[in-house]
Amino acid sequence: MHNVYVPSANVDVIRRLNVAFNAGDLDALQSLLSPDVEFVDHLPLPDAAQEAHGVDEVTNVLGQWREGFSGFRAEVGEYIDLDDYVVCSTHWRFTSKDGEIELDWHGAEAHQVHRGKLIWSAGGFRDVQAAIQAVEQRQTG
């Protein structure tokens, strides 16, 4: 008999968010957001908000990222299940509108899920440890 890893419900929510994001499926993405979702971007675009609150603002910020590039993907390499929190190690790929510049960036994000909905997300961490530290600060603060 083989042991099969079954991801937690919270990891599954973050996986589905990532799939929806990469597909540009705003309806699916919005269906996984709590009405009072909070988002913090530690590496925002120059014209994009660093923080967003609520489904519309979060969707707008993500839309600004997508509009800035012709190709924009997040490939999650690892999901770290921390009860209500999920930390992701992610490989981001960006292609400029003219297709002449391609960027690869490895970083991390931290997410909090409650009752099947994303309630808090922070991106732009340099590595998984920095994202875990943000989760620990949020838990104690």
Describe the model.
The protein is of the alpha+beta class and 141 residues long. It has one domain: Nuclear Transport Factor 2, Chain: A, CATH 3.10.450.50. It is built from 4 helices and 6 strands, in the order ααββαββββα. The protein has helices spanning 9-23, 26-31, 55-67, 128-140, and strands at 33-41, 51-53, 71-82, 85-95, 102-114, 117-125. It has a 6-stranded mixed β-sheet with strand order 2-1-6-5-4-3, with helices on both faces. Strand 4 (85-95) and strand 5 form a beta hairpin. The protein is globular and about 45 Å long. The chain starts with 8 loop residues before the first helix and ends with a helix.
Q: Tell me the number of structural domains.
A: 1
Query: Can you tell me the CATH architecture?
Result: Roll
Question: What is the CA-CA span between the terminal residues?
Answer: 44 Å
Low-confidence stretches: none
How much helical structure, as a percent, in the residues?
25-40%
Count of beta strands: 6
Order of helices and strands: HHEEHEEEEH
Q: Which value, in Å, is the CA radius of gyration?
A: 15 Å
Major pleated sheet: 6 strands, mixed
Residue-averaged pLDDT = 89
Give me the CATH fold name.
Answer: Nuclear Transport Factor 2, Chain: A
Class by SSE composition: alpha+beta
Oligomer: single chain
DSSP helical segment count: 4
Shape descriptor:
globular
Strand order of the largest sheet: 2-1-6-5-4-3
* Strand coverage percent: 35-45%
SSE layout and pairing:
Layout: H1 9-23, H2 26-31, E1 33-41, E2 51-53, H3 55-67, E3 71-82, E4 85-95, E5 102-114, E6 117-125, H4 128-140
Parallel strand pairs: 1-6
Antiparallel strand pairs: 1-2, 3-4, 4-5, 5-6
